[in-house]
Amino acid sequence: MAKRLILQHIVVAAASRVRATLAESFSRALSYASVVEGEFVVPGDEIGVVEEYLPSAGAYVHDGFVRAKTVGFVKADASKHEAAVVQARDVPLPRLGDVVYAVVTWVRDAVVYLDIFYNETRKVSYAVPFRGILHISEASNERLRSTYEVFGYGDVVRANVVSRKPPYMLSTRGPDFGLVLVRCPRCMSPLRRRGLWLYCPVCRKTHKRKKIASRHYLLK
């Protein structure tokens, strides 16, 4: 019971940071900010743009951005126009097969973007979340027309890591994986589970979602 209450606290705190995380990401992408020396980054984070820097140790290029390949601190060489990431010690990265909890930050028809904030397998919380991607083919054993049938902004998901490198690919196939906390689409309040339905105590409306991890749903 104590672990469940602690996890609920982590989930609520992480979900409340989603808007701030998105705003920061969009601001960085739009401003094409220069490399910030000493900045703490996690795999997938944008360090700079390829017009200004080339990737060095611990970095790679994707979609025109130099991104972090590992957890660590940014180190820039202005004379060579290179950006690297010095790996931080004692940070347990997500690994293939790990069970993680993640907050949905963006939903499209065929793919969902998430922030991984807790690793159940390694019993560690991530102060700076890792980026996760969940394709519609990995959302359920049933055929889905769109990920909108399952996921919504701010939802919390219990998922399995199915890739070895960032950004981490996730899967919610199987009865123990899926939604563990759902937000009301009207007021963003956490929904409580009532059998196969979800209930908003604020709006007093019921909602139905596919792929709820019933045994692990946090609010009943």
Task: Give the SSE layout.
Layout: H1 2-16, H2 18-31, E1 40-41, E2 46-49, E3 54-55, E4 59-62, E5 65-68, E6 72-77, E7 82-87, E8 99-107, E9 111-119, E10 124-135, E11 156-161, E12 168-171, E13 178-181, E14 192-194, E15 197-199, E16 206-207
Parallel strand pairs: 3-7, 10-12
Antiparallel strand pairs: 1-6, 2-5, 4-5, 6-7, 8-9, 8-11, 9-10, 11-12, 11-13, 14-15, 15-16
* Rounded radius of gyration (Å): 18 Å
Instruction: Give the helix level as a range of percent.
Output: 10-25%
Structural class: mainly beta
Query: How many domains would you count in the coordinates?
Result: 2
Give me the side-by-side strand order of the main sheet. 8-9-10-12-11
Q: How would you characterize the largest beta sheet?
A: 5 strands, mixed, barrel
Shape: elongated
Quote the average pLDDT.
82
Strand content: 35-45%
* Oligomerization: single chain
User: Tally the helices: what do you get?
Assistant: 2
CATH class bucket of the largest domain: Mainly Beta
User: Segments where pLDDT lies below 50 for 5+ residues?
Assistant: 28-33
Number of strands: 16
H and E order: HHEEEEEEEEEEEEEEEE
Fourth-level CATH superfamily of the largest domain: Nucleic acid-binding proteins
- By CATH, the architecture of the largest domain is named Beta Barrel
CATH topology of the largest domain: the name is OB fold (Dihydrolipoamide Acetyltransferase, E2P)
Distance between the termini: 13 Å
